[in-house]
Write the structure tokens for this entry.
Amino acid sequence: MTTSEARTGPHPPAPARARSGGWLLAAVAAVFTLAQLALAVPGTGLGWDEAVYVSQVGGNAPPAFFSAPRARGVTYLVAPVAAFTASTTAIRVYLALLSGAALLGALWVWRPLLPVRVLAVAGALFAGLWVTVFYGPRVMPNLWCAFGALVAVGLLPRAARDRRALAGLAAAVAAVTLLRPADGLWLALPLLAAALPVPAWRRPRVPAVITAGLFLGAVPWVVEAYTSYGGLAVRLHRAGEIQGSMGWYFSVDDHVRALAGRTLCRPCDIAWAHPWTAFWWFLLPCAVLGGLAAARRAGRLAPVLLATVTAASLAAPYLFTLGYAAPRFLLPAYALLALPAAECALLLWTAARRSARRRLATGLLAVLLAAHLAVQYAVLIGPVGHSRSVRTQFTGIATALHGLGVRPPCLVTGREYVPIGYFTGCSSRQPHGHDGSITEAGLAAAARTVPLAVVVPAGRTPPAYARGWPATRLPTTPGWAPLDAYVSPATTAPAG
């Protein structure tokens, strides 16, 4: 960073330069949206977590149990569609369009700080990951945390002198906290620390609005802790129990193995069967270092360095405090690290074009990029295929249960009780595990007033209160373990 930068912060590009090239960002966002609509939307069904979030505001079933670690942010995000239709396709299309617009908006925020070509490459690198495309149309909070983090970091350098940027910074921190309170905290900490060394950012109102955004976003979660969980300390303790495997862990290897297409690797004791799926992951640190060097030479180190430090803050808890992995956890870090990676990619591209053998060097870089995208989309086939099997599996089970008389108002408990309840249109409750919102005596009592289906692994003995009930083998999709349903006799008896 030059002496003048240290005094005033990074110099923004010329206004004309900042206004030009917006079509590149729009093109990246459009391709991202189309990729979701073509590859990640058709035929997919809501998973367990998605069914919990959607059921809170409508969808196909009464609200499922909302466990202590969850936050309401993504439920609010999907409410405008889920409140009016139970169509999974409608929800998916809505989120695909919204995530494309969010990517465009998050990159647009950075236009006064970085050249459009850097932002376009960064957006393409991030949107080209299979995990980004897969979670774009899904009712999960992590991708939206990534967009919020990208906006917050991009607004901080301007927040001291621009009231709109200041308000946007507070809103972005609040949004991330509303979606995932822990991510909101790990986002706010480096932003607060960054306001100290750079004089242009050192204004009292900057840390004040960051703190205000953090607390504002946490208010619903804290209030719900007292209204539904017995207090904040109780909810935090219960959240830790449910998430499990929390402490000091080295989970880097777990995240590497999960890149092969495992949406949740818990426990992550699988063999590393496809090392080629993580090749880009090992190149990322080198690309980030190269990008920081390129940004320093171009006189725009401060915002790129801030993005890198914030990405490290957001990734560290998942890499070193959880004993399991899910690729979506690192989406906020990937979004921010795409900026220095793009700086590095453009530096290499420029060097290749200026080299004596520029055709060979340029072709080699193009082949590497094409191979990277081919790997990403090859991996994407697996999670999307599983999501389609979710729809087939639980739609078939719901049809079978409807044929047995299990129709709303009804109740489902046992194995896979949340998705089965959602697809069937029933309430879902469990007397043990994360739920524990009802007792076995309560279930037995409910069976006298509404149809109750107890789902167990095929051949397994049901709970004592259901042992005299008729059992039915439920239809099973290839790749899923067979299940039996014990349905309360009052349901299966003839009318009258």
